[in-house]
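Hi L., both proteins are below.
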Amino acid sequence: DVMSPFTVNLFRFAIALAVLGALHFRDASRRGVSWTESLRRAPLAVVGLGLLAHVAYQTAFILGIDRLTAGMGALLMATAPLWTSLLAHAARIDRLSRAGWIGVGLGLLGALLVILGRPRGAEIDGTWSGVALVLAGAFAWALFTVLARPVLLRGVSSLGLTFWGLLVAFPLLTALGAPGIVDVPW
């Protein structure tokens, strides 16, 4: 009620960027590599994954959760591992067993039953656009998880991927969040 969700996100990621930068610099120094090594190893992947994880996912999640109750938003975000399993299977990174397929199916069915299983005429604890946005965010996070694995296997450090991806995304996050700063009743 006091601050726009994108403005909250801006402050959150400004702090995260500073902390991740310090951790990444320390980790690179400890390993004896340049702190730009991750960016040099896979520049397009780091940029693309940063935009996917920190702009696409965050935008869908923030806009969606703003339209839903916390419980409904949490339930829908909890489908991210299910989407990750399906995408990893499709990409042949992981293979779902019969029990895995049953688990994914039951998880998605359970989420669907909670969404649709309301008494006739009852609200869904939010809006349908909120449901679609949070599900899109969960799917974006799953896609990031699956696409990041081969990049990490090429020697890009997880801290480097996260730091550089966030640094690339930060100007867009700033553009979304900065306008709300003037409206905050400090």
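That was the first. Here is the second:
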Amino acid sequence: NASVDADYEVMEGQQMYKYMGKVILLGTNIKLDDKGFISGGPCALIIKKELNDRIGFPVGVPYMEDVIWNYQVFHAANKIGIINETLYAYKQNEFSATHTWKIKVAAERSKALNLLKSIISDSPEEQSCYALRVLSSYMMICKCSALTDEFNTIKERIAWAQEVYKEDDVWKIIEDKSVSRDWNSKQKLECFLTVSGLLPLMYILKEHK
């Protein structure tokens, strides 16, 4: 357990919402001043029981269910505290949902992204973070197209990944110039490769070289 006198920082208001966008929606671990790296994962959180009872994990959502739950929890909170102690160690599981390269992943990720889209605010910061989450999800689909054993040829792999992008409007947010205005050059390049249909080929060449 964390010691009672653990070093901690309290966030509320705009500072907390900025944290929510970067860590929760974007899904990255970030370094906050001298507090080390902070994770938005559910296992890294202690929340009030009444809040937990009110906000449950979405049913039938095997991908990004933690992101959806996290967003709702942070959005409902008045303030958060971050302690400077390591309380959770994460072990990668090669057989987990995020490491299973099956084409059904496309529909599941699309479903989760559409659900997330329905609950986030329309603030420019959150929309930009959400768009980056969409971009990273499509990158995982491209990786799936390269690694799945459900296709035999490179042509099939490319065609499937490109069709996924065309068939669901959830991916199109990255084409909105306003959400990508402050993205770095790497993110903008990944966005260009996605929109142009070249990203699946890049992943296939990388995985099958």
